[in-house]
Write a structure and sequence with these properties.
The structure holds 2 protein chains of 2 kinds. By secondary structure, chain A is an alpha+beta fold. Chain A is about 20% helix and about 15% strand. In chain A, strand 4 and strand 5 form a beta hairpin. Chain B is of the alpha/beta class. Chain B is globular and about 95 Å long. Classes of the chains: A alpha+beta, B alpha/beta.
């Protein structure tokens, strides 16, 4: 059997934007500002201790940490993990109701009111980036006042995941349209990228050869997670540095 | 019914329904399609500049409000500390406005102290009670806060400053006073210079957990990112020395587990190699050679070969660590709790400052990595501004808190005012703060959620959340610039609360005391008019009102990077006048032969000193190192645990001469075998449903060892023992427990 040929979407020709993100692992210090920023922006529910025990915590963005070696030569690494917005997404092909699909700008999107909760997508995601609402989300008394009006609160029985802050992308595009110009690099920042104190996260249009994300993606440090699975994620990780320490 | 009649009825029903619906919802429809006259779309919301008060760093932030409710916090891009960025705790602060545990009104104790039986009273009544007590106290009053230089501290100081008995003390993070005073004897500067990490090629972190709660996590994280990848010439390298592989240490290129209490000696040892290297290579000609010679002589006894065994780091490594300073400046050292947490803290900091100053002299031609200190002219301005905001931070020591507690216990105080701090919970057990508080005739707490200290108060006057009121603060940690942070009411008050400064001023006026202003807002305006001519960024043509609005829009006053000489260098005659001999005493530890382990209490990114434990976002965020959620744990070295037969989750009891705590063990490779590490901030008994009963309070183990030179708490001096308590629990950790070693799977 010969090599499988995969037809890639030609975002460059067909569409104005192809959103992508780079995460610089050499800058990330695992502080968790992005995790809370995401939770605040996207109305992600706090499920409580009992549900966490069942592995049902919902953070769309989490920081994986890996411990390697033994004392005293120990190395711990952080890796922020969210939906990788794969070009060839394993979650999409298994959804019986097309609740998740690739949008024209390269994002893997989830239509909540189409989802019937089979959880096939979550099962098929190699990055464990999809979360199922086992219950209707409840906020402690008064805390619903903080909910972001731009983002719907999901209900019991649907899958949810990182949207790359779709609401911010829409606002950025609307603003650019009102001003009669294309979106400029840096106009749109997802909540995680805006808050990241070390500037590890960069978001932008990878079709734009002058964008920062394009530069970083071509810096030679970029890798994709589980590249061998052929999912072609839109999230690229920039490898950590090494060399002489002293 | 014929078809025509059916349609008529149907149409009538439908239109009635629609009319009814319109009537009900018309008031709530937001006119999205018809933008209002001012061009602001209410759905997009409004952004206000203000100042985050979740910790003392003083980050300028922007808050998005929609429909009168605070929705999201982002950093203020123009602010010298936050630079447009924010941390997890700051962002969680927004949700605290709507916290279910917030107190709803002023309350007066109606049962025994500590019973928690309070009756709600009106604010008029509350102010009257306070004013009666203040009038009767005749100046026998103390004020205690978390070390913030803010309006409340300033107002308290202004009202009572003429009274001899009045004390304004601070219950701040351990070690802050040492960091302020360290190197002062050497440099002659009133403020320890800040080493410029953002431009450094090589940073040596001596027990400095700068991304956790040490000084400003946001500022240091920005510097870290910039050092690593913002300079095209080279990638910044960092080495961390300390007894625990902390979240900061993990981000460095190398961790060297040095012996607890020896980091000051290590700094002296590295300094000895650097001084000799500078002499040998003829570097830094600006430094008088005879000064260097004297330093060299004084440091000889700390040569790496002589101290290697004692500090548990081999001599070769110490030489390697010194090399970047001599060879390729810019290199810097940052000291933290690993140095200041012991009785010899300040002595170690002198060596750290010496290294930074020499490094600066070597590298200054490159115009990078300068130690930033406040220029002397600006320091004068800062001092004069600080006078409006309580005692100078460098005078606020743990020794002062201890002496206050002793006086409280002796029944010397009639009224105690406690603002924004929880000393009953987070001071060392041995201080016996709760008992001392019991001897104060009348205790007033300004807490806006119930906590262990408020529960001992006679009167609770809930302060506004910082998004609901006016605030001003002089951040003590600003690299080289003098800033006045402003905070404004971003949302309407959610509960019947009152700004602490306003409560004090109203009660003070009623009691016939001399008050500095009618309310907090007026007080801030007074400060601004006093310093208006020195706030160079305000366009001179603006009227006072316009200037006020200008500052509110901006979030405060600070010189822009271009306006100021950020890099004031210490006057060389001061720096290079050799002062005494550099030396560090052996650290003193507290414990007996039955206590073989060093106790290492630290603040996790999310829990802090305890303020994050009543918050869902922060509790459910996995701890960066252990990935534990919702729980508390005790860290022990994996190998050591094996020797003691301890597995993950086994309950273990840690005991010191002062007390003991029991909790589940977390086995960690990144911890010295002779150290037991425990996160602070857990074990609340009266901090709301979400926090109570989670874990135990590490402060129960702690004694009162101090660094006499700075008056700071030597929080790492305690020795402890460990034994199995029987039983075990499952630690709730994020992800697959088998996934410990998958880093290679991602080819990182």
């Amino acid at each position: 059997m010969g090599k499988i040929k995969v037809k890639l979407f030609n975002y460059k020709k067909q569409n104005d934007y192809k959103w992508a993100m780079t995460i610089d692992l050499d800058r990330c210090n695992g502080c968790g500002a992005c995790v809370v920023g995401c939770q605040a922006e996207n109305n992600v529910a706090v499920v409580g201790e009992e549900q966490v025990e069942h592995g049902r915590n919902m953070q769309w963005l989490r920081i994986e940490r890996y411990v390697e070696g033994t004392y005293p030569d120990v190395k711990v690494r952080f890796l922020p993990m969210m939906c990788q917005h794969c070009d060839i997404a394993p979650c999409e092909s298994v959804c019986p109701v097309w609740a998740t699909y690739q949008n024209p700008e390269g994002l893997n999107v989830q239509v909540y009111n189409r989802c019937i909760g089979t959880r096939f997508c979550g099962n098929n995601c190699p990055y464990s980036a999809r979360f199922f609402n086992w219950y209707d989300s409840k906020w402690e008394k008064n805390q619903e006042n903080q909910l972001n009006p731009d983002v719907s609160v999901r209900e019991k029985g649907v899958m949810e995941k990182c949207t790359m802050c779709m609401q911010r992308i829409r606002r950025g595009k609307d603003l650019a349209k009102d001003e009669g110009r294309p979106v400029k690099d840096g106009d749109i920042q997802p909540a995680c990228a805006q808050t990241c104190p070390t500037n590890a996260i960069t978001f932008g249009d990878i079709n734009d050869p002058h964008s920062k994300v394009h530069d970083l993606a071509h810096s030679g440090r970029a890798i994709r997670l589980f590249e061998e699975k052929g999912t072609h994620p839109a999230v690229l990780y920039l490898k950590g540095g090494s060399g002489n320490v002293y | 019914m014929d078809r025509r009649r059916f349609l008529k009825l149907g149409a009538l029903t439908a239109s009635t329904g629609m009319l009814g619906a319109c009537g009900q919802t018309a008031q709530q429809i937001v006119p999205f399609v018809n933008p209002p006259d001012d061009g602001v779309n209410p759905v997009d919301g409004f952004w206000y500049a203000t100042t985050c008060k979740e910790c003392n760093a003083g980050c300028g932030v922007m808050i998005r409000t929609v429909d009168g409710r605070a929705k999201k916090l982002e950093g203020n891009p123009g602010h010298p500390i936050s630079g447009g960025k924010a941390c997890a705790t700051g962002q969680a602060g927004v949700q605290k406005v709507y916290h279910p545990d917030r107190l709803k009104s002023a309350m007066l104790l109606s049962g025994e102290r500590g019973s928690g039986v309070y009756k709600p009273i009106s604010w008029t009544e509350a102010v009257t009670v306070l004013s009666d007590k203040l009038a009767g106290a005749k100046g026998s009053v103390f004020f205690l806060n978390n070390g913030s230089n803010d309006v409340t501290a300033g107002v308290a100081n202004a009202i009572f400053k003429d009274s001899e008995k009045f004390v304004s003390a601070s219950n701040h993070d351990a070690g802050a006073e040492s960091l302020r005073q360290g190197g002062a004897a050497l440099t002659g500067l009133p403020q320890t210079p800040y080493p410029d990490m953002a431009n450094a090629d090589f940073s040596l972190l001596l027990g400095a957990d700068i991304f956790e709660w040490d000084r400003s996590p946001v500022f240091y994280s920005r510097s870290f990112g910039a050092s690593r990848r913002d300079r095209p010439s080279s990638r910044g390298r960092m080495v961390y020395m300390g007894s625990r592989l902390s979240s900061t240490a993990v981000s460095c290129d190398k961790w060297i587990p040095a012996k607890p209490g020896q980091l000051g000696i290590i700094a002296l040892s590295i300094a000895s190699v650097v001084v000799d290297g500078v002499i040998e290579k003829g570097l830094a000609r600006a430094i008088p050679r005879n000064t260097l010679g004297r330093y060299s002589d004084a440091l000889r006894k700390y040569r790496p070969e002589r101290v290697a065994e004692k500090v548990d780091v081999d001599a070769e490594t110490l030489y390697k660590l010194a090399a970047p300073f001599v060879n390729e400046a810019p290199a810097i050292v940052i000291a933290g709790d690993g140095v200041t947490g012991y009785s010899n803290g300040v002595a170690g900091l002198d060596a750290v400052e010496l290294l930074n100053m020499i490094s600066y002299e070597i590298g200054k031609e490159k115009l990078t990595a300068k130690p930033r200190s406040t220029p002397e002219s600006d320091q004068d301005l800062k001092d004069r501004m600080l006078e409006w905001f309580g005692p100078a931070p460098r005078k606020q020591t743990f020794a002062k808190l201890k002496s206050l507690t002793e006086k409280m216990a002796a029944g010397e105080y009639a009224v105690g005012l406690i603002h924004n701090t929880n000393p009953v919970f987070d001071t060392p057990n041995a201080l016996k703060f709760k008992d001392a508080l019991g001897k104060v005739a009348f205790v007033v707490s300004f807490a806006n959620v119930m906590d262990e200290t408020a529960n001992q108060a006679d009167l609770i006057l809930p302060d506004n959340h910082w998004l609901e009121g006016w605030s001003a603060q002089i951040p003590d940690f600003v690299p080289g610039v003098v800033a006045l942070n402003l905070g404004q009411p971003v949302v309407q008050k959610f509960q019947e609360t009152k700004a602490a400064a306003d409560s004090l001023l109203e009660a003070g006026a009623k009691a016939g005391l001399k008050i500095p202003a009618a309310n907090g807002e007026e007080y801030i305006k007074k400060v601004i008019s006093a310093f208006r001519s020195e706030m160079l960024e305000i366009p001179p043509a603006l009227s006072d009102k316009e200037a006020w609005n200008f500052l509110l829009r901006r979030g405060g006053s600070w010189p822009s990077e271009n306006d100021t000489e950020l890099t004031a260098t210490p006057a060389s005659d001061k720096l290079w006048a050799f002062k005494g001999n550099l030396a560090s005493d052996e650290p003193v530890f507290e414990g007996t032969n039955d206590h073989p382990y060093h106790l290492h209490i630290y603040q996790t990114v999310f829990a802090g000193r305890g303020s994050g434990v009543n918050h869902g976002w922060l509790q459910e965020s996995p701890d960066p190192i252990t990935t534990v959620m919702w729980q508390w744990w005790i860290e022990i070295n994996t190998g050591e645990a094996g020797k003691l037969g301890i597995n993950e989750g086994d309950l273990i009891t840690v005991s010191s001469v002062h007390g003991s705590v029991t909790g589940p063990a977390y086995l960690y490779q990144g911890l010295r075998p002779d150290v037991i590490s425990i996160p602070a901030g857990f074990g609340h008994t009266n901090y709301g449903e979400m926090a109570n009963g989670r874990g135990a309070n590490a402060m129960d183990l702690l004694g009162l060892s101090m660094d006499e030179a700075s008056g700071g708490l030597a929080a790492r001096s305690q020795m402890v023992s460990v034994k199995k308590a029987g039983g075990s629990v499952v630690l709730l950790r994020n992800g697959n427990p088998d996934g410990e070693d998958k880093g290679e799977a991602f080819q990182l």
